[in-house]
Design brief:
heterodimer; A: about 450 residues; alpha+beta; about 25% helix; B: about 90 residues; three-stranded antiparallel beta sheet; 2 helices; about 15% helix
């Protein structure tokens, strides 16, 4: 499971039998109490029901695989919608895709006119207690600032993973891979001076000196007694020198991606190895996203989660004009309204490798194209990691984003449907469904594929 | 101490949870996804909100909310614009 906290929004994605919606009211309460967002469902913050007024709420999920294992309101879409409807005013629920096959559910609330005054709790209070503290949504608290630029979310939900590829996400196998890499690398003492100096310089520049003496334990595939312990800086050296293709194939230095502290627990250490071995580290490669960072964890006995933070690539600075406003750089990928900060995006991956319920998800809001990878490239890369039997792609894009993309492409397309045509064909797969939902300010394109 | 350069994401691990987490009996499967926006963008926060909005909320404050969800914090990758929490289950 993962959570991403931005100044203006929170994203929570949870797996299995988690009870995500049971935490929703507490989330809104925290937003009001600790972040200072306004609330309109009660008169005072002292009221335990006080909850911040969201501007928008999105809740989505794939169709249920094991509804009987779920808890709370999560046993059916009907119950989930009722829970949300009881909490919010003005929500809408949708099902996208085949009813008798893989489909996807969405619940959204819509922004209202900024000129609509908020109703007081008394005005909204129905008879009885039901709905008394119902939370209004959609009031933009302030329109002095701009809408978030490049608002698009891509989600790939994959089932029936290729068994060989899924094996990479078992602790036993990952440990074996890690051990083979470590044992194949010459002991620290036998390295030549030049290599040691290079490594030391790299470690020092990355602030890794503090890890001297720290220990990483990697369990081998055979027995726990075969565990290998090495100094953390030695493991980092392995990663730094990991471009040796004899040992690691298309290996890239993980120290470019990761913070050294991740080597201090086995789950994080092996998660790091798996990220690299499976190719996840290269979805947003450092060649195009030099400041991207990944936090990965391999669960015991299997299962994998990773979060990535992807700052937008730095642009070439244009000469400042006399006003000091940075010139005419209109690329909103890198600048916010005041031109001072780089936008930062995320991606997250969750993997359940067991054959009986194999599943993997990939989600990102890193904008496609511009100076990075095209969305279609990302999709093909991710699908190739898991080689699923079936998968769905949902691309949720804000309409200002679509208009900008069409204008930039100069192709006269009014929507992003044309821009994403390259996603219609995924090698080795047959597209079964393609469904477009045209919301007020977003466009949703849902695609479903099966292996040929 | 480790001092990342300005703007560099920094990882903090919750060793109490991460070190010995056993997911043998955990049922995984498709996720539920919730996205709650309190403003149209990071530059459109209301006057009452703290300058950094939700990012001003200490990590510990999210713990009881995550308890209701049945998740524990394994690690946090924080950066200038977004904090990424890796959670159990």
């Amino acid at each position: 499971s993962s959570m991403f906290v931005f100044p203006h929004k929170l994203i929570l994605k949870t797996c299995g039998t988690t009870t995500l919606l049971l935490g929703l009211h507490r989330l809104l309460r925290i937003a009001a109490e600790h972040a200072g967002f306004p609330f309109h469902n009660t008169q005072t913050l002292n009221d335990i029901h006080a909850a911040a007024t969201p501007w928008r709420v999105f809740y989505s999920r794939k169709n249920f695989l094991f509804p009987h294992k779920q808890e709370g309101p999560h046993r059916s879409w009907k119950q989930e919608v009722k829970y949300l409807d009881d909490m919010f005013e003005g929500g809408s629920a949708y099902m996208v895709g085949k009813m008798n096959g893989d489909h996807w559910y969405l619940y959204i609330t819509s922004p209202q006119s900024p000129f609509t005054p908020p109703r007081t709790p008394e005005e909204r209070t129905p008879t009885g207690t039901a709905g008394r503290f119902k939370i209004p949504t959609g009031r933009a608290p302030c329109f002095n600032g701009g809408l978030e630029s490049n608002d698009e979310t891509l989600e790939i939900l994959m089932t029936d993973l290729d068994p060989e590829n899924a094996k990479k996400f078992y602790l036993e196998n990952a440990s074996a891979v890690a051990s083979s890499r470590l044992s194949a690398y010459p002991p620290r003492d036998s390295r030549d001076a030049a290599a040691a100096a290079t490594s030391a310089a790299a470690s020092s520049s990355a602030g890794m000196d503090d890890l001297s003496g720290s220990t990483v334990t990697v369990k081998t595939a055979s027995t726990e007694e075969d565990s290998v312990s090495i100094a953390a800086d030695e493991m980092l050296d392995v990663f730094d020198n990991g471009s040796d293709s004899d040992l690691h194939g298309s290996y890239t230095p993980l120290s470019e991606h990761l913070d050294p502290e991740c080597f201090t627990t086995e789950g994080h250490a092996l998660g790091t190895v798996v990220s690299d071995v499976c190719g996840l580290s290269e979805v947003y490669p450092t060649s195009k996203y030099p400041d991207a960072r990944i936090d990965s964890y391999l669960f015991s006995p299997c299962g994998f989660s990773a979060n990535g933070i992807v700052p937008a690539p730095q642009q070439q600075q244009k000469p400042r004009d006399g006003n000091g406003d940075g010139g005419e750089d209109n690329n909103n990928e890198t600048d916010n309204d005041n031109g001072s900060a780089r936008s930062t995006h995320y991606f997250t991956v969750h993997v359940t490798p067991e054959p009986v319920c194999s599943f993997a998800s990939f989600e990102t809001n890193v904008p496609g194209g511009q100076n990075g990878r095209e969305t279609s490239e990302v999709v093909e890369h991710v699908v190739d990691i898991f080689k699923p039997g079936r998968f769905s792609i949902t691309l949720f894009e804000a309409k200002p984003n679509l208009a900008a993309a069409a204008a930039a492409a100069g192709d006269g397309l009014a929507t992003g449907v044309g821009r994403s045509k390259r996603m219609e064909k995924i090698k080795g797969y047959r597209r079964i469904d393609r469904i477009v939902h045209d919301f007020d300010d977003y466009e949703l394109v849902f695609r479903f594929f099966e292996r040929e | 101490t480790f001092s990342p350069s300005e703007g560099t994401p920094h990882l903090t691990i919750n060793h109490d949870v991460a070190a010995d987490l056993d997911s043998t009996n955990a049922f995984e499967g498709p996720e539920k996804l919730l996205e709650v926006w309190f403003a149209p963008g990071p530059d459109a926060l209301p006057p009452s909100a703290k300058p950094n909005g939700l990012k001003a909320v200490p990590s510990d404050t999210w713990v009881d909310m995550l308890d209701m969800v049945n998740c524990k914090i394994l690690s946090v990758l924080d950066s200038e614009h977004v904090d990424a929490y890796l959670l159990s289950e």
